[in-house]
Amino acid sequence: MIDPLLVLTSAALEAAVGYPAQLHKRVPHPVVWIGSLIGAAERVFNRTEWPGRRRKVAGVCTVIGVVLIVGAAGTAIARLGAIAVVIAATVGLAQRSLHDHAAAVAVGLRTDDLPAARLAVGLIVGRDTADLDQGGITAAALESLAESFNDGVIAPLFWLLVAGLPGLFIYKAMNTADSMIGHMEPRWRDFGWAAARTDDILNYIPARIAGGLVVLATGGGWSVMLRDAPKHASPNAGWPEAAMAGALQVTLGGPARYDGALHVRPTFGDGPAPRPEDLTRGLAIYRRACFAAWIFLLAGGVLWHL
Predict the structure, then answer these.
(1) How far is it, in rounded angstroms, from Cα 24 to Cα 19?
(2) pTM for the whole thing?
(3) Which of 3, 36, 90, 210 gives 240 a disulfide partner, CB atoms 3.0 to 4.6 angstroms apart?
């Protein structure tokens, strides 16, 4: 475990500057590097002519290799000192970028520019967006905002706090691996098994913290979160999504199309379908939930130094 005040400092720095676009043009975000590494391993070791058991073993070895590489990188940077840790940790956080992406969707909805709203929401969701109406765009943005509050904010902060920079880098690598190869389609089912299971384990505690912070930010939604979170196919994603539905008193989830195929998904909440103004409310809840996490880190830092 590291000093919570270092974690708080990194969180505040990332919220202030994010990962500047000009820097990204010159130095791609480290997640891009991790994705390239995972993609290369998948192309080499996920061979369709291999039996499923062999592909599963190859996937396990890929996860171990990625963990060793990014863990070593985190350890090397951490040895440079606290300032290096604070700066390097910002690349594993997404408070600002997540807010900015969701806010761009809200602007499109507020100005009745549906093409712009669809384009903006398409950057943060995996479902088909071409035919989404206002309600569909709003729901997609809120669901992504809630789930990514865990994946991009709380889980990275948790693992940075618990295991330092190596822990943060390993979490981001496994989360990236899950999004790339942790799927149930035949091509990835065996090879991506280890990545998906590891991501589930790493998110188990943070997802429940994220859901708790969402409802704490509003003072309501506890019962909806506790009742509906287990409905999700993922053991973790349902917690922040159900919490957001309960906090806003709307219904999220339900059928959605991915690559042209209709997927039947569970619903969260008891209220009406979300309206564009609910995304603005959701962003406010997101900001308060992030601030609540900061308060807990501050309190932890004070106790750490007593």
Answers:
(1) 7
(2) 0.94
(3) 210
